Amino acid sequence: MCGIVGYIGSKNAGDVIIDGLSRLEYRGYDSAGIAVISEGKIDIRRSVGKLKQLVYQLSKNELKGATGIGHTRWATHGKPSEENAHPHTDCSGKIVVVHNGIIENYLELKKRLVSEGHKFKSETDTEVLAHLVEESYKGDIFKAVVAALSQVRGTYALGVICSDNPGEIIAARQDAPLIAGIGDNENFIASDIPALLPYTRKMIFLEEGDIIRLSASKIEVLNRKGEEQKRKIQNIAWDAVQAEKGGFKHFMLKEIFEQPQTIQDTFRGRMNPETGKIELGELNIPVEAVNNLSKINIVACGTSYHAGLVGKFLFENLAKIPVEVDIASEFRYREPIIDKNAITIIISQSGETADTLAALKLVKSGNCRTLAICNVMGSTASREADDTLYTRCGPEIGVASTKAFTGQLTALYLLAIDWASKRKAISKEKAEAVIKELWEIPGRLNEVLKASEDIHALAKEFSGKRDFLFLGRNVNYPIALEGALKLKEISYIHAEGYPAGEMKHGPIALIDENMPVMVIATESKVYEKILGNIEEAKARGGTVLAIASEGDTQIKAKTTRQIFVPRVDEIFSPILNVVPTQLFSYYVAVVLGCDVDQPRNLAKSVTVE
Ligand code: F6R
Question: 3-237 maps to which CATH number?
Fold first, then answer.
């Protein structure tokens, strides 16, 4: 997730673009850059770190020009550095590109372009676009962009300028957001509405496959054949704060709804449902090392620890590798036995959690191979671990983690399937089937999100309770823990997550009419057992809310309220089942008037012990 802005008109493009980018920093902030056409030449400035670094650079040496494009980056390919910051140029320096998205086939394209003499200056996937446009450029930049796009596979929102033609910006959209803003003898492009609000309220939301030609006086929306497309001009009434949250009331809700996209971003280009193959090109773990793994240790905190608990089921079930999962603050002080043939996976959204980093240091001192699953490129964890598999969720702003969790699960699915295939623990057919099902998960999640208003109603009904119990079994036990954590951290209601089978060993004593129980009861090999646990809770006067598989009539008869989710293979049920628990916690907190995005006593990243 990155932010792009483009301007063409009579103002100083640099000022408009920097202002627009400052309203898009929630989309990424590890580096930023800007290019304008100044007296027929391209002038580029780039800088690592937040946008203010770039602003400082510009204050010393101002940019002049009325056509330009800019970018604020959330790294996915290539670490945050000045060379990897956008915009990127072709060999001649005449063509400049900013891009949000992922070019899946960039390695093969880069190889070909390099063999034909193109000189690359960055590690990014984006730079191939600049060279592809250069290759097809014969004086018409629109045609060259179309030709370049016909060769790429992946997602993009793109802005391109060429110094030969200072009166034009070309932009294109495929599976990444892009809008055009209409001004008075000036026009704009941006990834999102807030960037443009101070300048115009008249906007065109581009559709997949659209490519636009922008001058100061005109916006043409075309398809790849150059045929004009009719798009509605919308009048935006949102204020700036509403716009930053995409119209959602809180970042947390926006991030919950982003999950179909962020899951897809995490697996895109890394698995292929047609060939049944996983390709994690960024990892440097030889097949022999995977084959010789004696054990996996997973170490993390909070929500990331819960993802690790799901990971245990995946690695054991699919790859048949024994797994131990630890809370980092416990692991670092318990003198763990560090096995050189094991691998330690640390999971961290921020990559800066103090206890997780201390655990990483400890295992490294024991010469154990390490792998980080991390959302923030360039974070300490990603620099310290031997390898890093990034979740590509974009910045998570709500303190309560949601999209980072499902991104972590996606990364764990990819790893577990990959290692299971390498170790021949699953057949080719099974790998293909599992990959196909993972590919379908974003669509299934969209179905789950449709229940949002029903879950809101449920939250209103139960928001007066002071205690809550979440029960799950097997691969959904971690989801019971995560559901309880979400409820307590944002609504301050006491909640506990339990393995349902443990109830009769003590906690069942708590159940009465004041202690509702949310049971994760989707179809699985322990389904009958869960039904038994539901009966036990009911017999003690408990009110049971179930998360159940679509069309389950038995559950309907046995429980007080139900939230239905699509049927999927049991191993994928956690990634769907967690979402109703996120929505439930969110709405309870809203009903209670809590500060959802910044709950009391909590920080987004716990960098002290
Ligand atoms: C809960 C939450 C925390 C984090 C934990 C680890 O919603 O966000 O429990 O999961 O502090 O943080 P990371 O993943 O950044 O290491």
Answer: 3.60.20.10
